[in-house]
Amino acid sequence: MNPAALKHLAAVDPVMRKLIRAIGPCALKPETKRSPFQSLVQAVAHQQLNGTAADTILTRFKKLFPGKKFPRPEDLAKVTDKQIRACGFSFAKIAAIRDIAAKTLDGTIPSSRAIAKLSDEEIVTRLTEARGVGRWTVEMLLVFQLGREDVLPVDDFGVRNGFRLAHKKREMPKPKTLAAFGEKWKPHRTTAAWYLWRAADLAKK
User: Fold this and answer.
1) DSSP secondary structure string for all residues of 41-94
2) CATH code for residues 3-28+151-204
């Protein structure tokens, strides 16, 4: 948790100040030990599925590589599409995973060490070259793996819905509107996004 982020958000935005009071300190803790390759494969598994179904598929997938917590890109050459399909991946997702592996091996998708030296936009540009990887997927990696401080995923349903609820609006904000509003949250837009996610959670309860 970054106290400077909370102080800044509370000072520039009265709605955010109320959310911080209601929710308490930001509890976002990035999982820094995952490689970009692993993060992207897991993200592809989760696309258009609920978390439980995706986790089941990933568990089966990891069993194809005994003795490893998670396969390396080069390990994918040892299994067939049929084997991966049997885990529950669609053919489109198999093609995406193979492309992520190939682009990791050729250096387009950087290693954990190399990615740390790149700017957010450089990372978006490089990673979205892989099949099945869009901007939103990379933004989730920036937030939850790399712990970048100034990411606002304006296309994310939860972030947009949280903004709508916090501001008592009937309609969802357009991504452009949210991006413009979020300028005031710089350089702590990741923390702002976390509070918007929690605002959406609070409304469910």
Assistant:
1) HHHHHHTTS-HHHHHHHHHHHHHTSTT-SS--GGGGGGS-HHHHHHHT--HHHH
2) 1.10.1670.40
> What is the average pLDDT score of the chain?
94
Phi, psi at residue 131, to the nearest 5°? -60, 135
Active site residues: 156
d(CA 35, CA 109) in angstroms, rounded, equals 10
CB atoms within 10 A of CB 134: 14
CATH code for the structural domain at 36-144: 1.10.340.30
Render pLDDT for 86-131 as a digit per residue (tens, 0 to 9). 999 999 999 999 999 999 999 999 999 999 999 999 999 999 999 9
Token pair for 145? 């793996």
